[in-house]
Amino acid sequence: MKDEFAFIQSITPAYSFRDELINGIGDDAALYRIGAECDEIACTDTMVEGIHFKKDTMTPFQIGRKALAVNVSDVAAMGGIPLFYLVSLSVPNSGWSTRQLKEIYRGLKALGDEFQMDMIGGDTVSTRSDLHISVTVIGKIEKGRRLLRSNARPGDVVFLTGPVGGSAAGLSSLLSGDTNSYISYHQEPNPRVKQGRILAKSDCRISLNDVSDGIASESHEISEASGVSIVLEQDLIPAPEGFDAYSSFQRLEWMLNGGEDYELIGTVAEADWKNVENLFLKQKESIYRIGYVEDKKPGVWMSYKDQKFKLDKKGYNHFSSKE
Amino acid sequence: MKDEFAFIQSITPAYSFRDELINGIGDDAALYRIGAECDEIACTDTMVEGIHFKKDTMTPFQIGRKALAVNVSDVAAMGGIPLFYLVSLSVPNSGWSTRQLKEIYRGLKALGDEFQMDMIGGDTVSTRSDLHISVTVIGKIEKGRRLLRSNARPGDVVFLTGPVGGSAAGLSSLLSGDTNSYISYHQEPNPRVKQGRILAKSDCRISLNDVSDGIASESHEISEASGVSIVLEQDLIPAPEGFDAYSSFQRLEWMLNGGEDYELIGTVAEADWKNVENLFLKQKESIYRIGYVEDKKPGVWMSYKDQKFKLDKKGYNHFSSKE
């Protein structure tokens, strides 16, 4: 990149979606106004070249799109509406052309536009090595409607908004150099904002998490935050189409611990389950009952026929294999 | 780092300062509430090892502290109150001990505590190379009080809240391996939140910028955003104590283009200047008149005795020397 100022100019949005925005990019900081009827939501996530993606597993467009998607998914998991995003990009001294960097921003914008979000700030710096992209998302939710992990109660139904394991299967195929029909799960995940909104507006007590680290790990988080035990029923967990071509071990490993599916997993009272199911049906969105909550000490179990076995909190621990 | 979860546990704040905070670290995203009487402010900045700091020019504590300070300075430059911050840390596979990483968070917390800010979120990922720290700050300001760069008008006084050039002098000394009395300007800058608040509450029309890139570059930004010309008077610009030991060329280069001083530079109507000066005096804070605004096409000039010369928009362009 020859000129930082010209580059920033080229990626500065030409228009904005949100009435809440007062002043976007162009001053020391962005200014906006949410209003008294909503609480606010903020989260941040970083993707690093060589760790979260490689140039041969994702295009620059997909990298930008996903860096925003994983944050929007966190807002969805609170039942919120994503509004704004800020982007910090660390650009290696070599190996990335201005055209590729613009593609990253095109990917960010594609997902931002899909949810009518405005990019309101950022930072572009150079680095000696790998590309880093760090995104912060700000959102809102009607007061008191937030869907916390700590909301699960004994007797609740555990639900999931879509099949899991696809992202891990896609990544596995990308890393071995071939392609299967699952790679788009990994490269272009879709945050479940609409589903989160249906749940937030249902007026039911709901616990919720997005599936970034695999449903075993996400269930553990709900279990621990709520002080309950969770049982997942193996036969009820939806798999992507064609998954039975894989060994049952491989399939379950991807489904339970693969992560990066960005579906929503949560719990709702048994008495409200039919209601929730109907709300999803009306909106033509899918939701699956996959287990139940028990009044036992925190832990996650998998039931299969009349057996039950304990699930570890595996998921993706960024540092587990490092030292 | 052996275990990301244990590390995150160790840096999660044990208490919070802000009534606005509903739910901090521990769910998919943070939740807070600002209220109807304020607008909100958001900004983000990244510091990269080898580019913005080196292990031998700054301690881990200072790196964390400064990563937050530069963002708080942006909020100060809007006249706002910093409230919350989110931290994304990319940790190299080797070279940084858990103790050093905790020191980074201790530095963040030291500055955060100084301004009663809460850390409400973050992400900790690994990287194959240099450490990256990316901070987002969220703040607030009373509705309509924001101090934009575009507020300067012909006839305004140009002011500065303190001496500039110290940070560049300190860095220069650090890079050549010795120490002078200026290194703390570089290592431990102090964002001018109090000064920004005095200006915001003054009820005057004020344009404002923080000195991150040097006063020449910051003046250019105000000049361009406001469509006016700015004249800086060489003899009025405050230098750090002892600066006359350096050649006048070196001194001026540091003062005009050094950057990272994080003082505030801005303009106010001549008729309001005495008022502003008195407000600062009352609060025992310094403010210096260093120039004036002219009704000419955008540009920045330096006046010295009866000469005037044009100042380039130099400052620090992260990519200028790279390709």
From TrEMBL, chains A, B:
It holds the Pfam family AIRS. The keyword Ubl conjugation does not apply. Mg(2+) 5 binds at residue 213. Residues 26-141 form the PurM-like N-terminal domain. Mg(2+) 4 binds at residues 28, 74. The keyword Kinase applies. It catalyses: thiamine phosphate + ATP = thiamine diphosphate + ADP. Mg(2+) 1 binds at residues 44-45, 123. CDD domains: ThiL (cd02194). ATP binds at residues 105, 122-123, 149, 212. Keywords: ATP-binding, Kinase, Magnesium, Metal-binding, Nucleotide-binding, Thiamine biosynthesis, Transferase. Mg(2+) 3 binds at residues 28, 74, 210. GO terms for biological process: thiamine biosynthetic process; thiamine diphosphate biosynthetic process. It comes from the Bacteria. Residues 153-297 form the PurM-like C-terminal domain. Pathway: Cofactor biosynthesis; thiamine diphosphate biosynthesis; thiamine diphosphate from thiamine phosphate: step 1/1. One of its GO terms (molecular function) is thiamine-phosphate kinase activity. Its EC number is 2.7.4.16. Substrate binds at residues 52, 260, 316. PANTHER family: THIAMINE-MONOPHOSPHATE KINASE. Belongs to the thiamine-monophosphate kinase family. Reaction mechanism of ThiL seems to utilize a direct, inline transfer of the gamma-phosphate of ATP to TMP rather than a phosphorylated enzyme intermediate. This is Thiamine-monophosphate kinase. The gene is thiL.
